[in-house]
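Contributing new records

If you add data, match the layout below exactly. Sequence lines come first and carry their own label; structure lines follow with theirs. Keep one chain per record. Anything else will be rejected by the validation script.
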Amino acid sequence: MNRKSFFKHLSLLGASFGIFARAAEAAKAKIGIAPQEKFESEKKIFKLGKHRIKVKIPEYLKAKLNDLAFNIFRDHMDLERHKGLTPKIDGDFFVFNVDLSKEGMYQINVFDYSQKNKKKKGRPIAKLNIYALEDDLYALRPMKGDTHIHSTNSDGRNPPIEVAMRCYEVGLDFQAISDHRCWKTSDDMMKQLGKYDTSMSFYHAEECHFAITHVHNLGGSQGITQYINANKAMFDKRVAELAKTLPKDMSTNLKVEIAKTEVQFQIIREFGGLAVLNHPYWLTGRGNFNMTGSSIDAICARKNFDAYEFVNYGCRDISTSLSNAKYTELREQGIKYPVLGTTDAHNVKNQGMAYTILFAKSNKWADVKEAILDRRSLAVCDTLYVESRPKDRERMIYGERRYINYAHFLVKEYFPAHDELIIEEGKILQEILDKGESDERLAKLKSASAKTKAHWDSIKA
């Protein structure tokens, strides 16, 4: 078999396994076989300290209680010994008394000693993951959103309403449509959809182009494109004045590029927004222009913007690697920018493939802005490894180490259920948009939104 045929057969084999797995699940559902009950606690997030954890005993464990053993550990990479646990049995529940003295994920393991291995150790049959937090992080809510998306009001393929509604379908807490040179799209969606009682927050945004460098106006109270066009003489004067202050050994072109970029940053801040450096090292579609020059290096070193777009799914080629390299260099120089992850989606199909996770008091703009400026944000890019199993995704997460550890736990233990609740909100809202408002539909939406908002508190101890 030649190389081409081998990989073709391998691909078909992988697809077959996926088909068989889905068929097996469908067959179980058809004949009424329920999935195996999980060994898990309703509470997943704890403050540091001693806690009493209550876990319902799954039916498959009840017949072998005398053969079970338990232990707990925090991080095997710290080479800490696994500590034995002896739960009390309270009716249908295990009750564990645990000491969560350090921040991080803890894992409670269950071993079945009726099935010993060659080393006479019990076979691991279940595990439970929980997370302990210091007070500051415990008081904050995790949320995710996309702040760089395009619609047909610039060069996107989908109308603004479809782009906005897609954010519900991918389980986001906040969104900002940022059309090129157009702040109005985000304002329209805020007025049209923000009036409904959902858990979603809408922010103003636009992508600005008064320099080669792409500048992001995130959260500004008005569009700077319209403002600068109406006040061009003022803008040109500010650019000229700033250019005069730059080092004399810089070329005139470089001075003008930096000055145009930074005056936009200044105006965004004057309007209450965050000035974001978009896709610092992007490669154009034709591959003939790569923003790797001295202008980006100089702009980064001057520290006059608020956040660094680390992940941009639309630029997931060499630009992401270069963005990573530059970010590392900046950290070595003591420059620490907050990071954002976005899709830069021009098609709704790409929404949800990248996003920002952040930790804030709420998803109101003031709280989100504070979280970003305090570097409590992470840039996330989803990667799909096996096409036949679309739910088996891994996430590349960038930012501060403390938050990365926590986010990887949340991606598995919190966000799946969180996303489903937001998806349900979106379905009800779409029904309202399609069929019109009614007391019944609005009440249904309010109830769904309340469930989403309550879900986070329900898993905290």
